[in-house]
Design a protein that fits this description.
This protein is an alpha+beta fold. 30% of the residues lie in helices and 43% in strands. Strands 1-7-6-5-4-3-2 form a 7-stranded antiparallel beta sheet. β5 and β6 form a beta hairpin.
């Protein structure tokens, strides 16, 4: 099992941060290697809503499934991301103060496969570091652009 928690504080009101976070088109700009978000079942906010996340990493494409497990609008999202032999629960909590929003993400990954579980443990620090970089990139985009990121910004998620 691999588990970590990351937190950042964004100098924008809660509503702007929340709307930026839940916009799947914004995800393409701050989630490394993410190429496409494809809605498969339900609408965002509905328990059980499912999306396929299409990634391209170092020339290799793969798809992860993201299923919404629990949802409190504006406060909390719990989803299960699965694929590549992994099952990951990601809980995201939003705390609001006047003109400041804190986001905390807890990532908990495991697998039925001994090999994948071992790989997750060995790569835990690297995965956490990438997740932290993505969240910090999200912060910078929200602080610069607000809730809707322009399509012409430099892509964070592409291999250089």
């Amino acid at each position: 099992m691999a588990k970590f928690k990351i937190t950042t504080t964004i100098n924008k009101p809660h509503e702007i941060v929340w709307n930026a976070f839940i916009d799947p088109q914004n995800m393409l700009h701050w989630t490394k290697y993410l190429e496409k978000v494809e809605s498969i079942k339900g609408e965002f906010g509905e328990i059980g809503a499912t999306a396929h996340l299409h990634y391209l990493e170092k020339g290799r494409s793969y798809i992860l499934e993201d299923k919404l497990l629990e949802y409190e609008k504006g406060k909390r999202i719990l989803s299960q991301v699965s694929g590549q032999g992994m099952i990951i629960e990601v809980e995201t909590i939003f705390d609001a103060l006047p003109n400041i929003t804190t986001i905390s993400m807890t990532w908990n990954g495991t697998s039925k496969s001994f090999m994948v579980r071992t790989m997750l443990r060995l790569m835990q620090k690297k995965i956490a570091k990438q997740a932290e970089a993505e969240l910090e990139h999200f912060k910078s985009l929200v602080e610069k652009y607000g809730a809707k990121f322009p399509n012409n910004i430099l892509e964070h998620n592409k291999d250089k």
